[in-house]
Design a protein that fits this description.
By secondary structure, the protein is of the alpha/beta class. It is built from 15 helices and eleven strands. The protein folds into two domains: about 60 residues, no CATH class; about 300 residues, TIM Barrel, CATH 3.20.20.70. Helix 1 packs antiparallel against helix 2 and helix 10 packs parallel to helix 11. It binds ligand V47 and iron/sulfur cluster.
Length: about 375
């Protein structure tokens, strides 16, 4: 019997350990911690790329998902002081900060009336005066106005602070949030779980255990969530794998994660401006190894406003099967950190052609990956 393309690639690999890792992957066997680190240290980009692409195609074929969403950032004032953050303003520097009222945020939601968005992503700084009740009221107001709009909101960093101030347990707080309209959690606030790095780059906010506990509680209430990893700064490969290992263990327990999103550290205008950013080759390797290590995560997402659209397009051959959404320019968190896209907006037509240019199949999804529209043979109207 002739060998398949991936078997030929594995057989041609000279490093026996890398060959064994390749064979494990194509036999659907789980990689261990040392194998994950070994891939970062020793594997060539074409080798991990081929394995990740094989895995991606065996799970999803050419399907590449995106959604139609918009962002609301309630405030950029934050009580915490993460060193990589270019966005937050301390409460003491109020003149540079903003905070939106419920009516202002509802006006943003209303500005999408009649437009085919399916999700609102709400995330921002941790303002000392914005309470759990304020955010419960916000979600109730959004649901009263547009019940079918999926609310993906708040990182465990925001939630932990709200719950602590309101004197409620994580379980009570999450239940209240869910009842008020919270549908799922975005992946933010995870950064790097390992304390050797976390205590250096974001010492004062929710710990790894708190982050994981809040997601676990959400999963137990039937909600789904995403997870991120902030890579390419002072962490070592061991810390990346440790981070993914903790996520993989929780996912084994709950199956509540949908998507993993590696976030490339950007160094503009923050306290880590002297830390060099990772190279394109390293970015692609990060995506590929995420796909291989996180064998129980269905989706790996490239967040194009951060990476730039051309790099995001390349990641589609390195394990990625989701390219986020057609967000508009209300998102400030990345443009301030020096992301590739200063005003991140991409029309559906642009996003679809980005995906088609690399021979993938563009599919609009809901937040929970229900198919809304297959754009493979879609003809856009002139004004679309
Ligand atoms: O947790 C902050 C990151 C995250 C910088 O779940 C930075 O669908 C790079 O998590 N360089 C928040 N990253 C955003 C987030 C997210 C984005 C898109 C989609 C989803 C999703 C989640 O932004 C923070 C932090 O890791 N961040 N500053 C920086 N200088
Ligand atoms: Fe605050 Fe989030 Fe910035 Fe940290 S990353 S300072 S928690 S806004």
């Amino acid at each position: 019997m002739s060998l398949s393309k991936i078997e030929v690639i594995i057989e041609a690999e000279k490093d026996i350990q890398l060959q064994q890792i390749g064979n494990k992957i194509i036999n659907n066997k789980r990689l261990n911690f040392n194998e994950g680190v070994y891939l970062f240290e020793k594997a060539s980009l074409p080798y991990v790329g081929a394995l990740a692409n094989w895995k991606r195609e065996s799970l999803h074929g050419d399907a590449t998902y995106f959604n139609k969403n918009f962002h609301i950032e309630p405030t950029n004032v934050c009580v915490f002081s993460c060193k990589f953050c270019s966005y937050s303003k301390l409460y003491a520097h109020k003149e540079e900060g903003w905070e939106l009222t419920i009516d202002q945020m509802l006006d943003i939601v209303k500005s999408y009336d009649g437009k085919p968005v399916t999700e609102v992503h709400i995330v921002g700084g941790v303002h000392p005066k914005l309470t759990l009740n304020f955010f419960l009221e916000l979600m109730r107001a959004i649901k009263a106005h547009r019940p079918e709009l999926h609310i993906k909101a708040f990182t465990p960093v925001e939630l932990e602070y709200m719950f602590r101030k309101a004197n409620v347990s994580t379980e009570e707080g999450m239940k209240l949030a869910h009842e008020a309209g919270l549908d799922s959690l975005p992946g933010g606030g995870a950064e790097i779980f390992h304390p050797d790095i976390r205590t250096v780059i974001c010492n004062d906010k929710a710990t790894a255990d708190e982050w994981l506990h809040i997601h676990k509680t959400a999963h137990q209430l039937g909600m789904h969530s995403n997870a991120t990893l902030l890579y390419g700064h002072i962490e070592k490969y061991e810390h990346r794998i440790d981070h993914m290992e903790r996520l993989r263990q929780l996912q084994d327990e709950t199956k509540g994660f949908n998507t993993f999103i590696p976030l490339k550290f950007r160094n503009k205008d923050n306290d880590m401006h002297d830390v060099a950013e990772s190279t394109l080759a390293n970015d692609l390797k990060m995506y590929a190894i995420s796909r291989l290590y996180l064998d129980n995560f269905p989706h790996i997402k490239a967040y194009w406003p951060m990476l730039g659209r051309q790099t995001a397009q390349l990641t589609l051959s390195y394990g990625v099967n989701d390219i986020d959404g057609t967000i508009d320019d209300t998102t400030k968190i990345y443009s301030m950190a020096g992301s590739e896209e200063q005003t991140p907006a991409m029309t559906t037509q642009e996003l679809v052609s980005l995906i088609k240019q690399v021979n993938r199949k563009p599919i609009e999804r809901g937040t929970l990956y229900n198919v809304i529209q297959d754009y493979s043979n879609y003809e856009f109207a002139e004004n679309e």
